[in-house]
Amino acid sequence: MFKFLKGVVGGSGTGLKDLPYNIGEPYPSAWGSWTHHHGTSKDDGSPVSIFSLSGSNAQDRHLAAGRNGVKRLRTVRHPNILSFLYSTEVETLDGSTSRITLYMVTEPVMPLSEKIKELGLEGTQRDEYYAWGLHQIAKAVSFLNNDCKLVHGNVCLASVVVTPTLDWKLHAFDVLSEFDGNNETATGPMLQYEWLVGPQYKPMELAKSDWVAIRKSPPWAVDSWGLGCFIYELFSGIKLGKTEELRNTGSIPKSLLQDYQRLLSSMPSRRMNTSKLIENSEYFHNKLVDTIHFMEILTLKDSVEKDTFFRKLPNLAEQLPRQIVLKKLLPLLASALEFGSAAAPALTALLKMGSWLSAEEFNIKVLPTIVKLFASNDRAIRVSLLQHIDQYGESLSAQVVDEQVYPHVATGFSDTSAFLRELTLKSMLVLAPKLSQRTISGSLLKYLSKLQVDEEPAIRTNTTILLGNIASYLNEGTRKRVLINAFTVRALRDTFSPARGAGIMALCATSSYYDMNEIATRILPNVVVLTIDADSDVRSKAFQAVDQFLQIVRQYHEKTTAGDTTADATMGISSLPGNASLLGWAMSSLTLKGKPSEQASLPPINSSAPLTSAASNASLGMDTPSTAPARVNSSTDLADQPVPVSPTSTDGWGEIENGIHEEQDSDKDGWGDIEPLEEPKPSPALANIQAAQKRPVSQPVSQPKPQAASLRPKNTGKVTKDEDDDLWGSIAAPAPKTSSKPLNVKTTSTLDDDDPWAAIAAPPPTTRAKPLSAGRGRGAKTAVPKLGAQRINRTSSGM
Length: 799
Hints:
Layout lengths: L20 E6 L8 E7 L5 E9 L5 H15 L8 E11 L2 E10 L3 E2 H8 L3 H25 L2 E2 L8 E3 L5 E3 L6 E2 L25 H4 L3 H6 L4 H16 L17 H10 L10 H7 L6 H10 L6 H15 L4 H17 L7 H9 L4 H7 L1 H7 L5 H9 L1 H4 L5 H12 L8 H14 L5 H15 L5 H13 L6 H15 L6 H13 L6 H13 L7 H26 L17 H4 L3 H6 L92 H10 L10 H7 L18 H4 L2 H4 L48 H12 L1
Antiparallel strand pairs: 1-2, 2-3, 3-5, 4-5, 6-8, 7-10, 8-9
Helix pairs in contact: 3-6, 3-8, 10-12, 11-12, 11-14, 15-18, 18-20, 20-22, 21-22, 22-24, 23-24
């Protein structure tokens, strides 16, 4: 006895009360007496297909066949057979009569005949798609006949449906029965519901109900005939009306014609087994079938085969039917990448296919896979993601970038591979606008601080360029703390000429963020030095920068002279039309090194501001190969100038405004462990002196240290050194680290031992400098030579 669940049919789209699915509109066609509806799940709204079959009473033979079909579909599982989800029977009352309806819920599908009309494929693409679909149905029939020893009984166009991924699947199992070949003497019907099969689809022995001949035939005999009927309907485009129409082979492809005729052999024993059709038919060998087949067995392929396949896939995808690529290949490719079975080149193919989708579909079908791939430990995958970030970066939301993408990308900043570090750096141009201020200040700027002293010159250069490009995404306090220090102290003093050029361009591009005091005292003095740089490209950029900043200051002067007191001293220039092209990546600068600069002349400046500070102290350093650094001191000390207030920072640049640096904070600002970009190598004579210093001596040598400390001025906010800009002494070489190095010992003919910057002021290898006077702006008296210096002199004279 069957248990009937009673319910009431609601309005359109609401479905049955007891059915956990909503019943939608029916399709125009379906197999047999079934009605095929659209449907959705009441739980999550996911699409389904709902098949319904009605009968006047429980003993209705159509209902009995339908129950057989539901039972068979529930127990038979295969990738090319329709997937069963749910079924129930409902008795409804219509006045005084009752009616029983059988509902079967499956995965979402639509009739093949409707899908063919919707796709509208023609020519080669149609033939390739038909070959792939026919291949799938042949595998389903072969599975039933050869593996399960079952007979479908009614393979035709109506018994095939198509999934959203364009897979063809076999259903309509109402006639399905076991093959009773062992009982050859039985005369009863082997197919209990064979009366459901139309006469045009029946082979001769089934039309005659010759069950003895059927039982003596191979298990595939009946279904091979049905597959032939399906092929005819598929290629002719019309429903089979009578058996004689199968002789019309004009629409059958030539490569399939011989197999078609063998499937429809009049002798059941000579009909072609569907498994042989799959293995031997020439018709199934085409690009689409081979590509999908490779993707389906991807886990069985070795790395060489995968790499070769995925490198060819982007070009191959352009030749395949676009709808099949997007609905079938793309999901397979995304799944393979997500679960690690696909190689890194597959990402290129995924992004190319994704470019054919709408923005909404891309966000649904491709973007989730890409976000998951950022967590991959495969370096090749990470490189590929970063190389193509411009293709999908704009589609990433700010929250996804900040919480899911950036934490994984940031590991590339400290990677041992310079190539990966540079790709990570360049990716920030796309990702930085989507990062929160907390992430930028607390993490990103720390990494950029380290990369600006990276061993690779191209990375140092690109770091400067990136800072210039993302300056607009920094808050005001961070900009004042970071930009000038990064561009002048590091970039303009880099030994790599494109890095110096990048520093100049970055200063020009961010000129609107500097006030008049910063331009006059910190930017111009450092840029002017580069007008005599050894590199012609750097010189040309320096002259343009000097012109630009002088124009800003000149216009400010004109306004203040005219009595305009409303100007804003914190404003530089509002915009520079050419800035975007100026801040290209460093590789273009590397390839164009030695050629004239391609940048255009900078436009006139139209903004001005009043001066808010007194005379400043400027310190100039020139890194020319044969010229010793020169220094110019003004009479006014920077201790008299107000120090700009900056918020507490952990971004790696620290509190170094106007050259003021507290030694006790050196461990907090991230700069204490950074070595100078330029450290002159000692001459052989100096090296011998250093070696002599390390020898054991009878007298202590630590006495000069407190004396040197006592000579330090107590009323100034800065200290000086001999070879570099006194504004950046704390950055070039922190005193705690270098005060004990051998470089602080000199001969009596150069500098005294009480100079606290002796560690970083080693004389040039080929130049013997004259003794300097004590008047260095520090108020210190000339120190008397100590015994240590005399001892070193004696040692050097002995050498």
